[in-house]
Amino acid sequence: xxxxxxxxxxxxxxxxxxxxxxxxxxxxxxxxxxxxxxxxxxxxxxx
Amino acid sequence: xxxxxxxxxxxxxxxxxxxxxxxxxxxxxxxxxxxxxxxxxxxxxxxxxxxxxxxxxxxxxxxxxxxxxxxxxxxxxxxxxxxxxxxxxxxxxxxxxxxxxxxxxxxxxxxxxxxxxxxxxxxxxxxxxxxxxxxxxxxxxxxxxxxxxxxxxxxxxxxxxxxxxxxxxxxxxxxxxxxxxxxxxxxxxxxxxxxxxxxxxxxxxxxxxxxxxxxxxxxxxxxxxxxxxxxxxxxxxxxxxxxxxxxxxxxxxxxxxxxxxxxxxxxxxxxxxxxxxxxxxxxxxxxxxxxxxxxxxxxxxxxxxxxxxxxxxxxxxxxxxxxxxxxxxxxxxxxxxxxxxxxxxxxxxxxxxxxxxxxxxxxxxxxxxxxxxxxxxxxxxxxxxxxxxxxxxxxxxxxxxxxxxxxxxxxxxxxxxxxxxxxxxxxxxxxxxxxxxxxxxxxxxxxxxxxxxxxxxxxxxxxxxxxxxxxxxxxxxxxxxxxxxxxxxxxxxxxxxxxxxxxxxxxxxxxxxxxxxxxxxxxxxxxxxxxxxxxxxxxxxx
Lengths: 47, 542
Hints:
The complex is a heterodimer.
Chain A: H1 3-10, H2 15-40
Chain B: H1 4-36, H2 45-80, H3 87-109, H4 127-157, H5 165-196, E1 202-203, H6 205-216, H7 218-233, H8 235-239, H9 246-260, H10 276-288, H11 290-310, H12 318-322, H13 328-351, H14 356-359, H15 364-393, H16 400-426, H17 441-444, H18 447-476, H19 508-531, E2 537-538
Antiparallel strand pairs in B: 1-2
Helix pairs in contact in B: 1-2, 1-3, 1-15, 1-18, 2-3, 2-4, 3-4, 4-5, 5-6, 5-7, 5-9, 6-19, 7-9, 7-15, 9-11, 9-19, 13-15, 13-16, 15-16, 15-18, 16-18
C-alpha cells in the first residue's frame, strides 16, 4: 500500500460504520415496535 | 516500564477478582441445575438462595471492584508514567476491601445473608454482611482518592497538556463510583446496620429502595467504563489502526458519568413510593444515557473500519473480514459489541415505561443484565487480562489459541444461556424463584428452555476454567521473566491531540452539573420520606 493510499483511507469517512450503525438502530426500532404492537398491546389490560 | 511494586499491586487485585469470578461461575451453573428440577437431589431453596446471593455479590461487587481497582492502578502508573501515589494507602485499600469480602462471605455461605445481590430491605441479613460490604466499598474509596490525586498532580505538573485518555476515563470512573456508592452507603449505614443490630424495630422499604436505586443503575457504568476504556485505548492499536477521535471519547465518558447517575428510578417503575412524574424523568434520562454508548459504538467501529481497510479490506463491509480476528482484544470487542446490541435492546424494553410492566420481575431481566454484565463487561475483562497479564508478570501469554477458543465459547455459552431467559420472561416466568417445577402446562413449556440454559451455563463454566488456566499458566510458567520486553501500547488518534478545552480535560464543571442533576432527580423523592407519614416494616428473612 502506497503512502497516498494509506492517507486516503485514514482521511476517508467511515461509511461502513455509518451503514452498520444505521442497520443496528433500525433493527432495534423494528424490534421495539414488534414487541410493543405485536406482543405487549395484544395482551391487553392487566385484570 | 511499570515498577515491580505497582505490578504486584495490580496483580493482587486482579487475582482476588478472578478467584471470586470462578467461584461465582460454579454457583451459577448449580443454580440453573437446581432451579430446573432435573436433579431432585439438588433441590433446596435454602442453598439456592444462599448461592444466588453469593453469586451476585461475588460477580457484581467483588469481581468488578477488585478488577477496576487493579486495572486502574495499572492504567494510572503506565499512562501517566509515574509511580502510584501513596502505594501504602493503596495496599491499605486492598486489605480493607479484602477483609470486607471475607467478612461478608461468612454469612453469605452459611445462609445468613440470603438477601440477593440487591439486599432490598426489609429482607434482613446478618450484620456482618452489611459491615463486610461497607468495608469493601470503603477500600474502593481509597482507590478513588488515589486516582483523583494522581490526576490532579499530573495536571499540575503538566499544565495545558491533555490528560492521557486512559487516565481521563479511569478518573471519570472514580468520580462516578464516589457518587454512585453514596446511595447504598446511606442505606446501609442508616437503615440496614441499625436494623440488623436491633437499634431500630422497623425500616421504611420505600426509602431503602429509593437509596438503592441511586446506586443500582450507575453501578453498571462503573463496571462498564473499564470495558469502554479498552475499546478506546487498546482496541484501535491492537487492530493496527488509530483512535477515531480522542475528543469524542472524552465526551462519551463525560456523558456516561453525568447522565448515568440520576436515572435509577427505571428500577422502581412498579414501586408505589415514587410518583409517576419522577419515574418518567428518570426514564427519559435512561434513554439519554444510551447516547454515549452509541457514540462509543460508532467511534470503536470506525477505528476498526480504518484498520480493516488498511489491511486491504474493500467495500462497505469488506473490511470486517480483513480485521485481525486472531487478536484476542479485537475478537473480544466484536463479540462484546454484539452482546451489547442484544443486551441494549433488552434494556430499552426495560426502560420503556409502559412495556416494563410486561417483563418486570420476569426472567427477561436476568437475561438482559447477564448480557450486559457477563457478556459485554466480563468478556472485555478477559481481553484486558490477556493483554496486561503478560505485561504484569513479564512473561508471554501461555496460549493465544486457547484465549480465542475461550472468548468464542464464552460468547456461544452466553447466547445459549441468555436467549431462553428472554423467551421465558415473555412467557411469564418470574425471576428470583428457586424452582420452576409446578407441573402445570405453562411451567412444563419452560422445560426445554431450562435444559438449554443448563447447557449454555456449562459451556460458560468450561470457558471460565480455560481463562483461569491460561492466566495461571502464563504467570507460573518457567519462562524467564528477563527475556520479555513487551510494553503497553496505547492507541493514538491519527491527528495527535495537542490541546483540549478545559471542560474535556477536567471534572470540576461536571462534578457541579452532577450535583445539580442529582438534587433534581433525587432531592424531593428522598426528602418526601421525612415530610409525610410513613409506615415502617419489621425485618424478615432470618
